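Thread: "does anyone have the structure for this chain?"

Original post by V.I.:
We have the sequence but no experimental structure in hand. Need at least a predicted one for the grant figures.
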Amino acid sequence: MVAALVASTALADPLPSWTDTDAKTRITEFVSSVTDPDSDSYVTPADRIAVFDNDGTLWAEQPAYFQIYYAMDRIARLSEADPSILTSDPLKAAAKGDLAGVMAGGEKGLLEVITVSHSGISVDDFITDVRDWLDRATHPQTGMAYDAMIYQPMLELLGYLRDEEFATYIVSGGGVHFIRAFAEEAYNIPPQQVIGSASKTSYQLVDGVPTVLKEPQIAFIDDKAGKPVGIDNKIGKRPIFVGGNSDGDFEMLEWATAGEGPRFGLIVHHTDGEREFAYDRDSSVGKLVRGLDEGPERGWLIVDMAEDWETIWPAR
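Reply from O.Q.:
Generated one for you, tokens below.
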């Protein structure tokens, strides 16, 4: 896996991959104001909570969420041993690596693929399997390892915030165990600071070994209005800094920035079709409409990737 390149306040510039635009200035001015004990906006370290979406905010998400590619790969491997699991068209498409066929099944078909591929396995074995997949799989368009397609400017932002005594969390619609497989190495965010969608789990003795197993039912969807609920349940405090990229993050941004005291909302706008991908209003993945229309009047920063970022990917 690609290790996170974490910025340090020892550098003269804590965000070297950000261009000297309004975006960079607003971030550093906010952080300076909430960390200066003499500032009227000072926030104690215990309340410096920062949360970030993952897909499209910390790493790429086109042409489909990377977890879907993992699910299809696992279905293919499972079906080699037991072809009888292919009981529907989306599952058959997944076994063939046919993304269009999987997506043709709509949300129901996608959930079926995720459920079958993510159940009947212990949490520990699942995380190991995800890591093994990340070590060998490559993106169908860029040819890069999936965990190399993380955003260097966001790695610097995470490091900058932690240097200033912020606690950084991931709050994602993606699967919590999937993200926990790589979050610490990729972003320096430990597993206990990852909030995500989750299947039901159960405790069982398997061959005498105490085991937590992933079951074939969804327990919680950490998306849209589910994100504030997940934050409240897992963190117990309203964040003062929140970053997202799509309307799936709108309620999280809305709730976090509605709190008392200084607040910062950030939206990564995918405007760079040459270095990454350009999409927003009409995209089937990472659609951004309300954030673009309402974000500026709410005081949220809209980050223009093409203009505000000197580079996209970490140096390899």
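V.I.: this helps a lot. The CA atoms of residues 47 and 303 lie 25 Å apart.
O.Q.: and The beta strands are 49-52, 121-122, 167-175, 194-206, 209-220, 241-244, 264-269, 301-304.
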